[in-house]
Structure formats: structure tokens, C-alpha cells
Amino acid sequence: MKTSTSKVVYLGLFVLCMFFIYGCNSEKASNADAEVNTGEKQDDKPIKIGVLASLTGGLESYGKQTVRGFELGLEYATDGKMEVEGRKIEFIVEDTETKAEVAVQKATKLLEDDEVDFLVGSSSSGDTLAVLPLAEEYEKIMVVEPAAADSITGSEFNKYIFRTGRNSSQDAVAGAAAIVKKGVKIATLAPDYSFGQDGVAAFKEAAIKLGGDIIHEEYVDPAATDFTSNIQKIIDQKPDYLYVIWAGSNTPWNQIMDKKVQERGIKISTGVADIATFPTMKPLVGMEGFTVYYHELPDNDVNKWLVEEHKKRFNGDVPDLFTPGGMSAALAIVEALKKTEGITDSDKLIETMEGMSFESPKGTMTFRPEDHQALQSLYAVKLEDKEGFDYPIPVFVRELSPEETAPPIRNK
């Protein structure tokens, strides 16, 4: 009887131990599953970033600047290790060809085949607007750079979109501040797509607030090379200023000079674009306007590193208009990943990035929580001749602070 009782006791203890072991193992398995589902344990997986850029087409130079800046930004932010929180960073660049349908195809490939954790891009507002719904569908953060259309963080906004590039309203505020006084009459010239349309709408809003009067709006095919009839229409309206919004290599400056616009008493103002456009702006010496970036303007350690490193890597060439933007996109992503300890769960990243500040070649940027637009500095400049240059360059007038250039919130 005693032996039988002992067997029962031992059997009970054995079952209890097995139950305990099973329970512990189940709990571990459950925790492991939870780590996979929430992204808490991802040390063995590289972080993948898909970069969409115009490497061919009308905005080819912008795309190449962005990609250069992005790679340099990753190196700067990771001290050359190309990893964050122990996870390697890989990035894949795809050419959108400056075509919206191609941008969608390439973004889909990055999301489905390459399984990227982030999207970055693109050079064209049209490309970018076409891709925004994919970021929402696949629930992946997309850092927009350098596309500027207001609608990206406005009417077409979704919570996965964060923009390090400035938007058209920030350009508009800076442009208006440079020229508008009460009663001044202004005509505008812009490409006939979202970048130009949004840009004019934002400039008009800012100019009216300062007492200006927009008397004519002229829109042109973005691929146009003949601006003669458009410029004549503007001349016929006899404005005090012609404010030009443009992007791409087919600039209107030579034809504005040929039509003797300034000799007719019409002053020109614009945002100063990339270095390749400077020779075409010879007739605009003395013009007051603004710029997103010129390598001599920002005075901070990040920009100094960018300028020096860019010269070393690229045969003495300086960073151009959108190089710092590419770098800023990389800096923002790495800063967010440091704060999440390498976790790429989109909800956690959104929570982290809303209101997040980070250092960039243009100083401190901050993602505004309401629309995820990066508030940032722009620069009031004057075009002047400079010894050693065959073309005018932008000379610093003053820094337009992030608070001063903060655009309206448009994602109602």
C-alpha cells in the first residue's frame, strides 16, 4: 500500500513538472511570436530602405543629388558603420524616370519583392503623389524628399508620410517676404502640374496677406522649351514683378531676357535653384529672392562635414540644391531608429517621429505633429557677381527661420 501511494505521488509530481515545463515553453514561444509580430526582436534582419529618384528624365540632376546626399547622410549618422542598434542598413535605389506610372511600379517592387522597411522619394511631385497610397496600403513610413507639392502633406496626406523636403508654401512664404509690399502688382509663371499649381496658390495666399495683388497667373507645359507667348501675355498685363516658379533644366530665363522683361520695368523674382541654372540667370544680377540651399549659406557642423566630404568624394564638386535634402532624409530615419532601438514597427515609428527634432545640414528640423511636414530654415538671398565665377551666385541676406517659414496646415 505504501509503495502504491508513492507511485501515485511520483506520478503526480511528474505530471506537474511536465505541465510546468510545457507552460514555460509555451510562454517562451508566445513571447517569441509577440516579438516577431511587434518588431521587438529584429536583430538578425537588416533594415531596408527603398529610395525612389529621377535618375533619368527632366529631373535627373535632382534625383542624383538626392541619392548622393542620402548615402552620405547614412554614413554621417552611423559613423560610417551603416548600422543602427546592431542592425545593418541596406538601401536600394530605383529610377522613377520622372514618370508616375513607373514610380508606382518601382515602389511596388520595393515593397513586395525587396520588403523594404522605409520608402524615400521622390524627385517629382507627380511621382510622389502616385506612390503615397502605397505607403498607406503597405503600412510603411515614406520620407518624402524633395517633392514640394503642398498636397503631399495636405489633401493627399496619410499618417505614414513624413516630409524632410520643404513644401510649396514654405517656398511661397520666403518668396513673398522678399518682394511684397502693399499695392504691388505681381504676375506668376509656373509649370502646369501639381508643383507649379500648388506653388502659385501658396505664393498668392502669402502675397495677399502682405498686401500684394496677383493680377495674372500663367501656366506652362512642364516640358516646354518655348515660353515666348507666355511671357508676352505677362508683359501685356504690366505687373511690377514677375514671380517665377520652376524646376528642371528647361528654364525660361534666356527667353525672359530676349523679351527684355526687366527693361520694360518688370522686376523678376524667383527661388534660386541648383547650380546648373546659375549661368542662365546672368540677366538677373541684383535680383532679390530666396533659396532652399546653397553650400555657403548654412553655418553648422553637419553642413561643414557635408561640404568637405562631398568635395573629397566627387572631384571637388560642392553639394547642390537637393544634396542636403537627401542627407536630411537619412538623418531623420536613423534618428528615429535610434529612438526606437532599431524597431521598424510603423506605429511605433509614427509615435516617435511626430514632433521629433533632428540636426541637418540646414540646422534643426522638426516634424510638425499635425501634418508631418519638417519645419526648416530657408535663405533670403541676392544674386551678385563674384570674382572667379562666370555667373551670379546667391549671397546671404538673412536666414528665414523654421518658425518664420512654417506653412499653413492643409491636411484637413
TrEMBL record:
One Pfam match: Peripla_BP_6
Protein name in UniProt: ABC transporter permease
Family: Belongs to the leucine-binding protein family.
CDD domains on file: PBP1_SBP-like (cd06328)
Keywords tagged on the record: Signal
Every Leucine-binding protein domain range: 46-385
PANTHER family: LEUCINE-SPECIFIC-BINDING PROTEIN, PERIPLASMIC BINDING PROTEIN OF ABC TRANSPORTER FOR NATURAL AMINO ACIDS
Biological classification of the source: Bacteria, Bacillati, Bacillota, Bacilli, Bacillales
Species name: Psychrobacillus vulpis
